[in-house]
Amino acid sequence: xxxxxxxxxxxxxxxxxxxxxxxxxxxxxxxxxxxxxxxxxxxxxxxxxxxxxxxxxxxxxxxxxxxxxxxxxxxxxxxxxxxxxxxxxxxxxxxxxxxxxxxxxxxxxxxxxxxxxxxxxxxxxxxxxxxxxxxxxxxxxxxxxxxxxxxxxxxxxxxxxxxxxxxxxxxxxxxxxxxxxxxxxxxxxxxxxxxxxxxxxxxxxxxxxxxxxxxxxxxxxxxxxxxxxxxxxxxxxxxxxxxxxxx
Length: 247
Fold this sequence. Notes:
By secondary structure, this protein is α/β, with parallel strands linked by helices. The chain folds into three domains: 74 residues, Ubiquitin-like (UB roll) (Roll), CATH 3.10.20; 83 residues; 51 residues, no CATH class. Helix content is 26%, strand content 19%. It is built from seven helices and twelve strands. The strands form three sheets. A five-stranded mixed β-sheet has the order 2-1-5-3-4, with no helix packed on it. Strands 7-6-8-9 form a four-stranded parallel β-sheet, sandwiched between helices. A three-stranded antiparallel β-sheet has the order 10-11-12, with no helix packed on it. Strand 6, helix 2 and strand 7 form a beta-alpha-beta unit. Helix 5 crosses helix 7.
C-alpha cells in the first residue's frame, strides 16, 4: 500500500467531507494511478482544477502518483494568467461563453440580461451539453457534479446554491465578471443580440400604457421579441445592482 498527501484549496473544498477541508490529509492507494483519477475519486471534478503541484512542481492530469508524493490542488484561475506555470491546458479557461443545464433556467435569463452568451434548453441531455460545450468552447454551469466528471469536459463549474442571487454571485466571482456586465443588450429568451428599433415601427404591437410612457425600444432579430426598460426590467436590474455592490 502506497500513501500520498493531498491538499485542496479555496472552493475545491466544497466537494470534500469536513475532515479533509483546508488541510493536508493522507490518501492510500495501490498501484500507480493518475493524479486525475485520484482527484475525481475524492469527489472533485477535473474541470474545477487549473493547477496541480506535486512536490512543488506543476504536473499534468496524467502524472502517475508515487509513494510519499505531496499534492496541492488549486481551482480555476479566471482573473489572471497562469499559463506559464500550469501544465493542465494550453491556456487558462478565459473564453466566457456558457451552457447551462436544465436546473438553471432562471440563472440563464439573468446571465443573458448581463450580456453573457448563454445556451440553455430544457430538452438538452447531458451528452448534448458536453458536445456543444466542446465544439463551441463553452463553460458548463450545472447543479450536477457528475456531469462535470465526464472525461471530455474541460470547462465547467458546479453551482453550489439553489438560490438565484447566490448563484449569480458565485458565477460573477468565479469568472471575474463584475466589470464585463452590460445590461439589456441580449435577448433573455433566445440569447440573440438586441437591436434598437424606433417606436413608430412597432406602435401596433404595444399596449396603450406602453405607448404612452416609454420611448426607447429594442428588438431581438432572432425571435422578434420587443424590449423596453419598464418595471420588470427595473426589478431585474435591481437584483444585479444589489449583487454587484457586495462583490
